[in-house]
Amino acid sequence: MAKGRSGYSFPIHELPDTTRIALARGHELPIKWKHAREICNAIMEKGMYLHEAISYLRAVMEQRAAVPFKRFKGNVGHRKELHNWKWASGRYPYKAAKYILQVLENVLNNARAKGLDERRLRIIWMAAHKGRIIRRRPDRRGPGLLRGWKIKRCTNVEVAVMEIPEEVPSVEEEERAMEEEEVEEEITEEIEEKSEEGEIEELEEKTEELEEEEEGEEE
After folding, report:
1. 41 and 90 belong to one structural domain
2. 35 within 8 A of 96, measured Cβ to Cβ
3. How many beta carbons lie within 10 A of that of residue 135, not counting itself?
4. Which of 128, 219, 114, 101 has the alpha carbon at shortest distance from 163?
5. Confidence of residue 22 (pLDDT cuts 50, 70, 90)
6. 7: region left, alpha or beta (phi > 0 left; psi from -120 to 50 alpha)
7. Which pLDDT value is given to residue 5?
8. Is the per-residue pLDDT at 204 higher than 50?
C-alpha cells in the first residue's frame, strides 16, 4: 500500500472527515517483526476497541492470554487460552506486547487531546512493518566456514483509531418501541381497573355483613 503524506500506510489524507480519527506510530522498535505482525493481526481480527486491546496486551504480558500465531506457526506450542480464537498455536510475546502497548497508550493520549470519547474508540488500522537493520554480523560454523549473516532488524508499528458514533434507532425500531409501550399501558390500566373492581366488591361484601350483624343485634 502506498504511503500517505504523513508517513503512514493508512490513507488518512483520502478520508473526508479526520476529526474523529487519531493516529500513533512506533518508529524503529527493538522487537521482532514476526511477533508484532501476529499481535496486530489478532487485534484487527477481533475488531477490538482501544480499551479492549490495551487490557488484552496487559493480559498477554501477564500470561493470562496468548497471541495466536497463524502465519509464523512453525515449532510453536499449543496454548489453552486460545479456545475462543478457534486456534491452537500461540505464544506470549512479552517484549513485543510491551512496546505495542506503549503505542496504544500514545494513540489514546492523542485521542484525548482531540476531545474524543475513550470508550467509543475502535481500532480501524493496525500494522507492523520491517524497519532498518541495526546490526549485521557473519554466522560462522568454524574457521573459514561462513553459513550466512545474522541480522537484527527494527520494527515500525502504526495504529489508527476512530470514534464510533452512538447507535441511532431506526424509524421501525421507534415505532415498535412505541407499540410495545402502548400495549404495556393498556395492560396496566386493565390490571388497575380489575383491582379497583375487586376492592369495591370486597367493600360491598363487608358492608352487607355489617348490616346483617346490626339487624341480628336489634332482634
Report:
1. yes
2. yes
3. 8
4. 114
5. very high
6. left
7. 40
8. yes
Instruction: Say if residue 97 is in the same domain as residue 198.
Output: no
- Does residue 24 share a domain with residue 112? yes
Statement to judge: residues 29 and 123 lie in one domain: yes
Residue at 113: amino acid letter:
A
For residue 67, CA distances in Å to 101, 173, 198 come to 14, 39, 65
Q: How far apart are CA 38 and CA 127, in angstroms?
A: 10
CA angle 82, 93, 130 (to 5 degrees): 115
The pLDDT, as a whole number, for residue 69 is 92
Query: Nearest-CA neighbor of 97 among 75, 135, 70, 64?
Result: 64
